[in-house]
Structures are given as structure tokens and as C-alpha cells.
Amino acid sequence: MNVTLLATILAISFFSIGVYAYRRKEVMWFWSSPTYQQLTFHDPVTFNHKTGIMWMLFGIAFFLPVPFRYFHFFKENIFIMLLSCILTIGLFVMLIYWHHLYQIHRK
Fold it and tell me: Between 14 and which of 49, 59, 85, 94 could a Cys-Cys bridge form, CB atoms 3.0 to 4.6 Å apart?
């Protein structure tokens, strides 16, 4: 499979997760542990909005290098390295931000 196509599909998937989280009324969880399902937030809609925006920004950041690769501004190995950096740094930043949101919005 073409790496550019795969990156586009992943970017759309991340952005879609963000849209879904943004529009949800109950707290959005990505796991099914009963201990997390019992936790409540004082404002789940705001928590979901911020989480959704976080995922949408990650999807946009993941898509940014795709047009440059499509128009052959850099080689595929540089494109893969750039996507790997975005994925690694982005997930680390998302983890820290989600933990920050969790501390603010939990009851």
C-alpha cells in the first residue's frame, strides 16, 4: 500500500475520532474498563469538546506533509521519517494534554 494513501487514511481516521468525540454528550472513552466507566466529570460536554479538538488537530498535523509528498517535494523515506516524528511527538503531547484535561474535569 502506498505510504501517502495510508497517511491520508490515518489522518482522516484521527480527524473523524475528533469529530465524534466533539459531538458526543457522554464522556468519550477509548477503553472499556469498568473502573473508568464509573468515573464522572462535572462537565462532560466541555471535556469531550476539548478532547475532540485535540484529536482533530492531531489528524490535521498528520495530514500536513501529505500534499508535499504527493507533489514529490521530498522522497518517501523522508516522508516516513516525518510522519514517525509527528506520530511520536503528537501522541506524547496528546497523552500529557489528556491527563491535564482529566485532572481539570473530573469530580
Answer: 59
C-alpha distances out from residue 69 to 24, 40, 83, Å: 34, 43, 11
Q: What pLDDT score does 105 carry?
A: 80
| pLDDT the model gives residue 45 | 85
What is the CA angle 85-12-64, rounded to 5? 45
Amino acid (1-letter code) at residue 86:
I
**Per-residue b/e over 49-87, b at no fewer than 16 CB within 10 Å?**
ebbbebbbbbbebbbebbeebeeeeeeeeebeebbeebb
Q: Please say whether the beta carbons of 47 and 97 come within 8 A.
A: no
Per-residue pLDDT tens over the stretch 13-26: 999 999 998 998 88
For 59, the grid coordinates are 489528524
- Sorting pLDDT into bands at 50, 70 and 90, what band is 32? low
